[in-house]
Amino acid sequence: QVQLVQSGGGSVQAGGSLRLSCAASPLAYVFYQMAWFRQTPGKEREGVIALYTHSGGTSFVDPVKGRFTVSRDNAKNTLYLQMNDLKPEDTAMYYCAAAETLGTWSAEETYKYWGLGTQVTVST
């Protein structure tokens, strides 16, 4: 079975950095695109940034431009989210997601597989 296991969340001060990991199994499984979403209480889950596996291209929302970077270690089949210059408004539960086909990058229904989420808290 395909499984996504997340790690790397935590609490940091504004301006700090965190790196989230999303390890996929089996190692040889191929995804067409992978993404990070986030959600705060009372709000809908929001697509943050996505990676198109074959092209290496990315899509992202404007608030994280220049601060968040998505990457992948092909050998480990692991997706990473490097978050720099974190702001209090970045506080959320972060989820990784993976799709077997291409689709609208920020739509939840595009992704078949999901991690359980990891909390990121940014204090002032």
Structure description:
The chain is mainly beta. The protein has strands at 3-7, 10-13, 18-25, 33-39, 46-52, 58-60, 68-73, 78-83, 92-99, 113-114, 118-123. Strands 2, 4, 5, 6, 9, 10 and 11 form a 7-stranded mixed β-sheet that branches. A 4-stranded antiparallel β-sheet has the order 1-3-8-7, with no helix packed on it. A hairpin with a 6-residue loop joins strand 4 and strand 5 (46-52).
Radius of gyration: 14 Å
- Broad structural category: mainly beta
| Major β-sheet profile | 7 strands, mixed
Q: Globular, elongated, flat, extended or rod-shaped: what is the shape?
A: globular
What's the SSE blueprint?
Layout: E1 3-7, E2 10-13, E3 18-25, E4 33-39, E5 46-52, E6 58-60, E7 68-73, E8 78-83, E9 92-99, E10 113-114, E11 118-123
Parallel strand pairs: 2-11
Antiparallel strand pairs: 1-3, 3-8, 4-5, 4-9, 5-6, 7-8, 9-10, 9-11
